[in-house]
Amino acid sequence: MDEACADLIGGMIRIKPRAVLGLATGGTPLGVYRRLIDDCKSGLVSFRHATSFNLDEYVGLPEDHPESYHAYMRRNLFDHIDLPLSRAHLPNGNAADLEAECRRYDALIEEAGGIDLQLLGIGHNGHIGFNEPGRELSTGTHVVELAEATRQANARFFNSIDEVPKRAITMGVGTILKARTIALIAKGEDKADIVRRALEGPITTDCPASLLQTHPQLIVLLDRGAAAKLSRLSPDLSGGSTLPEERTV
Ligand code: PGA
Predict the structure, then answer these.
(1) For 49-86, what is each residue's pLDDT tens digit?
(2) Could you tell me the distance, in angstroms and rounded to a whole number, from the CA of residue 201 to the centre of ligand 1?
(3) Where are the beta strands (DSSP E) in 19-141?
(4) Residue 142 belongs to domain spanning
């Protein structure tokens, strides 16, 4: 699955060296990033002319804090590939005027020509980026209060839950859905329920990832665990016995 996803991104860059990539943080993309680093080091792919925009960043966490998404991206990808840092964008969660920062970020994405390929994880509560379930969703980049469930899920990266920031800047669902292609990735049985809700349940703001059903070019990459509860798989995929341990859907 990591390889399939890295090939998708590498393929996009080979076809369009100036591609604009949407990137994600969290545990799920780590294997994809490791493969992209290998592919870049071996000369299979070059990010020299590419541009990237990350989905989100915590508010108020210094950029050099190890758990900031700036630091995550440098550690897990940017420090090891040839993408110029000047074109590797993340929202600035320490901007004095956060509203202005959100507008700046959207304008920057527009100026770059929009996102060609957006890599997207999914939270256990169905969030995409930090667009949390609720009565309403926002279109553009905006400041969010993080759901308690999200803070608890991310507490594993901090010393305690008290250190997990309470707010973040995130691309909105409109920004995400404007990407020309979206690659949704999920791993592990603990994601099986939410993957099913997102892909087979009703389209609702209670599960922001369900809006992805409306996207004309959605590619879903799941391991066997995350795919386990989908009903619309071909019979051979739900059977199990002849399947490899991991399978791309
Ligand atoms: P994870 O996070 O990859 O760490 O599971 C996904 C998300 O919250 O979007």
Answers:
(1) 999 999 999 999 999 999 999 999 999 999 999 999 99
(2) 20
(3) 20-23, 51-54, 56-58, 88-89, 117-120
(4) 2-242
